[in-house]
């Protein structure tokens, strides 16, 4: 029974103020908002083993990444795609990543350096710091006994040599070989390998045999010798470009002795080759296959193969097919392939869309720097990014990127140490003359950009999450 005094007090209060009931609506929030408020419940990181990339923008946690540590349970493949407009920090990320990986004694890195300044590749400073001489592929220097890589190197299997020769010809011609041309090439290659035993066969041997086929080749197919010669004429003309044309000197002789394939860092300097010419995908095909057969071995080392301007690979169906095999074998042999591309639209809408999709599918890690809004939407559709990540990509400032590691999506600020800074930034002419005041202003602007990005993420993370009571 209620206390009479309480009943009297309640009646008196109701008489003075009226009967008022205070109702409290249920608290509703999204998991994304909860993660932003309660950091211990935020999305898990990638572990604490590997190299430090920087910090997560919205949580402030350190961001550590290593494809070899994550492979298996968290990563189905160790390959990595880096996307973004120029000037947003891709080069700095690549270089610090390699430098930090090389601190592990079981790591080895090959870089195809397709960009350069001051007459040398972008990786020249890092190579000098590590006491390494880049392998500079330059037609002019090659004529004066420069570096040569032989597509017919005995270290490459006979099958690999023939596949590489077909790729070189198909890339240069822009279409696949027909059966007759393919037969002429196969016969010439077989004859050269069988008859030349006292030295390395070279491309000029193939060209000579195509121009002057043996009668036995025609007899085996019951055709006239002139027919075999006609079938191989276009093939000979294409290969002649590597022997006596604008690409002569780099691939028309025995492989240069003394190339150190055991060095921790191997840099192929392609900066003297026109990036927009047909020569670039040909070079990448030859270097890729040569490395596959001479560098990758079933030992305990973990290898990283980093390719700048990688759209030359992904956008060519013939070169992409060679690299698909390399990537598949790489998982078994401890190889992580890193492809650096400016625009995904350069490759997914081209003639090699099928091959490009296959290579992109193998890249379980994707890092996307700032892009224009329409490009970001196209990238998001191809890579299957969440809506909030697509919306934030156009707002990213240099050094900040969206990382998608097999579905674990974070916004990460890449951090560069003072020791690394002079080695990794390519705009040295600008930074060397900057005053301390300008540096302070830049750091303040970067901090403000980080805060804006963090606020944006906290506001929009919940958009793609389901709400809970």
UniProtKB/TrEMBL annotation:
- What InterPro entries would the database entry show? P-loop_NTPase, T4SS_component
What are the recorded GO MF terms, alphabetically? Answer: ATP binding
Q: Which UniProt keywords apply?
A: ATP-binding, Nucleotide-binding
Q: Which domain of life is it from?
A: Bacteria
Please give the Pfam families that the UniProt record associates with this protein.
AAA_10 (PF12846)
Instruction: Check the record and name the PANTHER family matching this protein.
Output: SLR6007 PROTEIN (PTHR30121:SF6), UNCHARACTERIZED PROTEIN YJGR-RELATED (PTHR30121)
**Know the name of this protein?**
ATP-binding protein
Lineage runs: Bacteria, Bacillati, Actinomycetota, Actinomycetes, Kitasatosporales
